[in-house]
Amino acid sequence: MEEHRDDLASKTGMWLFLFTEMLLFAGLFVVYSVYRFKHPEAFHLAAEELNVFIGTVNTIILLTSSMTIAMSITAMQKGSTKLSLILLTVTVVLGLAFLVNKYFEWNTKIHHHIYPGSEIMASWGQGDILFFGLYYFMTGLHAFHIIIGLTFIGFVMVYIRKGRITPDRYVLLENSGLYWHLVDMIWIFLFPLFYLVT
Amino acid sequence: MSATSTLTTNAEPSYLDYDNHRKGIFAWILSTDHKRIGLLYMFTIMSFFFIGATLGLLMKFELIAPGKTIMNAQTYNAFFTLHGVIMIFVIVIPGLPAVFGNFFLPLMIGARDVAFPRLNLFSWYVYLTGIALVLYSLFAGGGAPDTGWTFYAPYSFKTSTNMLPAVLGAFVLGFSSILTGLNFLVTIHRMRAPGMTWLKMPLFPWTLYGTAWIQILATPIIGITLLMIVAERTLHIGFFDPTLGGDPILYQHLFWIYSHPAVYIMILPAMGVISEIIPTFSQKSIFGYRFIVGSTLAIAFVGYFVWGHHMFVSGMSGVALFTFSFLTFLVAIPSAIKVFNWIATMHKGSILLDTPFYWAVSFIFVFMIGGLSGLVLGSLATNVHLHDTHFVLAHFHFIVFGGTGFAFFAALHYWYPKMFGRMYDAKWANTGWLIFFIGFLTLYSPMFYLGIKGMPRRYYDYDEMFHSGNIVSTMGSWIMIAGIIIIVINLFRAAKSGPKGEQDPWKGRTLEWTVPSPPPVENFDKIPVIEKGPYDYS
């Protein structure tokens, strides 16, 4: 049987999958809105505990990585496999940098005993507890998606080396780009909701 | 659609014989053929149906007399939880799409396979992983979960039973459901045979299309909700714990935002099956094709906005109550349209009285009882009286078991000769149906009465005044099981030694009847070109 290939189908599938990812986070955004509505003052004060500087740096890092992966796709379209690989490497490095920042940020918080179930948090008001519960859960889930995205890009890089992704056939690369943009976009919502509501 | 002659295609091996370079069981469990995957799902689902049905049978036996009969309260709680989890998440939600959708969607739209065959096999493995987690929750340390299949907060993070594996299992099963839905959506968009415009597509694929959208758009919400329960139990994040500021009612909202549309995941493909069987057995084009398509999409759409009717007594504003009640009544309209269309299709048709037709007609009967009792529950005033009583139980089983279950058996008897290339014994099949039907009505009808009288659900004990109704109901469960046993034995015997199935035993007009029984690996010799609508009996 002749090889069956339908790039549009693959991309449609990816878009539908991204829908489901968005809805997964949508559930959390609903929960966030409900509790923010109930405890506006506490959310406002709790947000001041977060480090806006690290948050901003991470936002810049992710936005840049979205740019590099988009450039990598263009490089592939124009036939430059090598440049495409370099740009993907940059994307992965930026993604890792994001995670390292996140690690230090969480670490400082946990060091100050700000985490769900800690004694300090137990003495706080309900609004603060909810804020930090949501903070850890949502940024944690987001970081998990970054890891999935990085793994995905890692596979794409291997496939490019092996010649399974070529300038004529790069739908997988495009899909990894789509996924990466989604992860980026969710962060764009998380950043103001947690860091900038002060 | 001219029928391909059996002779020319017989040279190709059927999907049952082809060994795809693998031996024995691996030729099945590593196969990416949509037909084999459909059967893999079918055997998994049937095995678990027996477990779920046994749990149900034992619960009914417990209820044969007031007080403790064969099990204590804790065991009963575990039983109804697992009965619910297995029946809903393992059987009814994947049921029709994963078995008959996988098998017949490509055949009915004239494609060689689904859009992503490997993803399709992967979903089956994800499904098995989910089942393994659910089973693990049964046997591991803390005892089987006892919250009911709804995992309501705060029970679900207070109970000491094995909540985590059960909740994670439901999450993983949801993921499998999403992947199947995604696969079907892309398949329907991209792989219809040339000439098959949207309005020339048969109705079963149409309902799978509506179902797939619900699977994709609703399942993530339960996914995240279940993850929140996991976080609540492991990390003590107080999403739903009032002592930490959380809101248990919010859990109910999030749960039903998925789980109500999930009811339409269950019932839409069932309606699709019936919409295939009725025209074939009336030898007449379906009445109001466009209305059935429209009502399918309307059900899928309106179904999103009615979740609040599960929570009329949980505490909501008056406006919310009124709105949800109104929308619930609205969703009854497209369902009724379908019933009218099926009846109108039969009108002046030349009806073949065969097993699939019996199943289809009895489907309409029980579905109507289930649907109308749903309106009783959807009215605010009566709901307060009937909430959490046996009436709900009866309504739910009439719709879900009466709907999806009857349609599953209907589909099985309708497509059996196509799937296995063998024919079952019609007399035993009809006997099995009749016994099952009688058993079904005897089992569930008394529950309406018991519920109105005030018998609550989810108790292993009851007041003496409910005794007689429960005796009838329990005896019904025995009759129904007898029916199931007859049906299953009959089908197994047919697979072993039944006469050869014809290519088109019912004179169907849709594409799956144009290929040999059982279908060859590649389905079609040549992809057909479609010129006419799907039910052309002119």
Describe it for me?
The complex is a heterodimer of chains A (about 200) and B (about 550). Chain A is about 80% helix and about 0% strand. With about 200 residues, chain A is mostly helical. Chain B has one domain: Cytochrome C Oxidase, Chain A (Up-down Bundle), CATH 1.20.210. In chain B, about 65% of the residues lie in helices and about 0% in strands. Chain B is globular and about 65 Å long. The two termini of chain B are about 15 Å apart. The N terminus of chain B is likely disordered.
List keywords for this structure.
heterodimer; A: 198 residues; mainly alpha; Four Helix Bundle (Hemerythrin (Met), subunit A); 7 helices; B: 538 residues; Cytochrome C Oxidase, Chain A; 16 helices; 0% strand; disordered N terminus
Q: How would you name the oligomeric state of the polypeptide chains in this document?
A: heterodimer
CATH first level of chain B:
Mainly Alpha
Q: Give the CA-based shape of chain B.
A: globular
How would you sum up the major sheet of chain B?
none
How far apart, in Å, are the first and last alpha carbons of chain A?
Answer: 62 Å
**Radius of gyration of chain B, in angstroms, nearest whole number:** 23 Å
Give me the CATH fold name of chain B. Answer: Cytochrome C Oxidase, Chain A
Fourth-level CATH superfamily of chain B:
Cytochrome c oxidase-like, subunit I domain
Kindly report the name of the CATH homologous superfamily of chain A. Answer: Cytochrome c oxidase, subunit III, four-helix bundle
The overall average pLDDT of chain A, rounded, is 92
Instruction: Give the overall form of chain A.
Output: elongated
Q: Whole-number average pLDDT of chain B?
A: 92
